[in-house]
Amino acid sequence: MDYVMCRHHEVERVISREGSRYSFSDAILPSLGARSNRRVTLRRFIISPFDRQYRAWETFLILLVIYSAWVSPSNLDFSRQIARKYASTWLVLDVISTIPSEIARKALPRKIRSYGVFNMLRLWRLRRVYALFSRLEKDRKFNYFWVRIAWLFCVTVFAVHCAGCFFYLLAARYHDPSRTWIGVAMGNFQEASLWSRYVTAIYWSMTTLTTVGYGDIHPVNTREMVFDVFYMLFNLGLTSYLIGNMTNLIVHGTGRTRKFRDTIQAASSFAQRNRLPVRLQDQMLAHLCLKFRTNSEGLQQQETLEMLPKAIRSSIAHFLFYSLVDKVYLFQGVSDDLLFQLVSEMKAEYFPPKEDIILHNEAPTDFYVLVSGAVDLIEHQNGTERVVREATTGDLLGEIGVLCYRPQLFTARTKRLCQLLRLNRTSFLNIVQANAGDGTIIINNLLQDDRRLSSAGSARGCLSTIDDSQPKHLPVRRVTVSIPQYGGGGSGYVSKLVLLPGSLKELLEVGILTEDGAEIDDVAVIRDGDRLVLVGGECAVNGVLKLRRRSKNHWLTDDSSTK
């Protein structure tokens, strides 16, 4: 078997000069009767043009060429404008930088032929290196600090190399080699190796650039002195550029630390000057330390979200927090639209351990959803603190005060590092008012949560505006409001079928009172035959509404009653 494989390999390495008998060739036909060796043995790494794999590769390339010919014209748009702009900017310099140096040297006079002037024009290609580094600085896959360091290093090496070459050029073209900087240092330098001469030139260029100047090498003739003067002037600008960039990189890395130390010092001075308690001082410093930590680790998510459009912010908030908010007891059974709107208005915050999130009797401006960590709810009685319960992931903080328009009942204090979602009361109420049906569900969820209300102690007192005897789910009732119209040829009524509000607050907003002018305590106490007055609008000041049951969930008015 091995012999057969080796034999097959040898056959593949041997080809015929004539190729296949079915193929055509442009080669000259041999004379009649001429003989030659028809078989050639190929060396290693030589590809036969008649090899099957090579023919398959050529076929694949043909397909790629066809695709490129079909796609490329559609990729180039505004070709005339692009060509005109390029011709007016970099075209001339790009053409000059590609001129063959051999042809240029032959065209130049003999005196300057050896200088290779046109070779210097090829340095124009270095602008592509600058474009490469500029692109890498904006690429998030590469670290900006190290890309910038690499750029500064390349600039320094290039400047030193060019200056060293010019120094050697001045010495090599001077009529008296012994009166040159390298001639004084090395004697017959032209017989030294190229590497020794290059290292010596780079050494003097570097010592001049760094302004060290050991004195072992110095300019001798006038040409070298003049060039050295201009080179040192160039070094002033290059050194300023390097030092400025390095300082900017270092300050950028340490600026946040310096700002953090200044903030801590200012907070400590403020606490000592105002003689704040030790507990408040610790909370201040802990909060500042946590803020510095989140900024250093890239966790300042709220600042990042504020830079994005609202649609993207809503999508990110929905992805991060929707599953958590959906499990909160207060929002069980509400619509997905309400949850999406609530999540979009929530803002994530971090709190260090032993920090107060909500204070007792504080105005109910916000309530929180606990994402991670643990929080103690503390009740104040007779000047003492008592832990009512511990809130964990998915619990709400301060929702009773927000929903009942009462000061906060507890002090919420973190036990460890916590992440919370803060929702403003005004934003919450605006969203709930736009979703009236979900508002009733939220109130029912609050009433049904016996664990929180029983542990609150005085929490049920704040719910006095909501009757405990109210049914958990009020039936849907529609009423027709009739408003008397006076003037013209007589009087009449304008009737409108409306949905009876499901809460006292909404009922008072439409201005419905009893016949004797008293406010209605609760919607649930309205009975058949009750006379209601619609007070609101110029035409409804004297309107009387008398309800009578017509079907199970439909209420109509008795249009014959007026006041």
Automatic annotation (TrEMBL):
InterPro entries on file: cNMP-bd_dom (IPR000595), cNMP-bd_dom_sf (IPR018490), Ion_trans_dom (IPR005821), K_chnl_volt-dep_EAG/ELK/ERG (IPR003938), KAT/AKT (IPR045319), KHA_dom (IPR021789), RmlC-like_jellyroll (IPR014710)
Keywords: Ion channel, Ion transport, Membrane, Potassium, Potassium channel, Potassium transport, Transmembrane, Transmembrane helix, Transport, Voltage-gated channel
Domain of life: Eukaryota
One function term, GO molecular function aspect: voltage-gated potassium channel activity
Residues passing through the membrane, by range: 54-71, 145-171, 229-251
GO cellular component terms, semicolon-separated: monoatomic ion channel complex
Residue stretches making up the Cyclic nucleotide-binding domain: 330-449
Broad class of the protein's primary localization: membrane
UniProt key word Membrane: yes
Pfam families: cNMP_binding, Ion_trans, KHA
Mode of membrane association: Multi-pass membrane protein
Compartment(s) where it occurs, according to its Swiss-Prot or TrEMBL record: Membrane
Entries under Gene3D superfamilies matching the protein: 1.10.287.70, Jelly Rolls
Protein's job: Potassium channel.
Entry similarity comment: Belongs to the potassium channel family. Plant (TC 1.A.1.4) subfamily.
Domain notes: The segment S4 is probably the voltage-sensor and is characterized by a series of positively charged amino acids. The pore-forming region H5 is enclosed by the transmembrane segments S5 and S6 in the Shaker-type (1P/6TM) and contains the GYGD signature motif which seems to be involved in potassium selectivity. The KHA domain (rich in hydrophobic and acidic residues) present in the C-terminal part is likely to be important for tetramerization.
Record's subunit section: The potassium channel is composed of a homo- or heterotetrameric complex of pore-forming subunits.
Protein name (record): Potassium channel
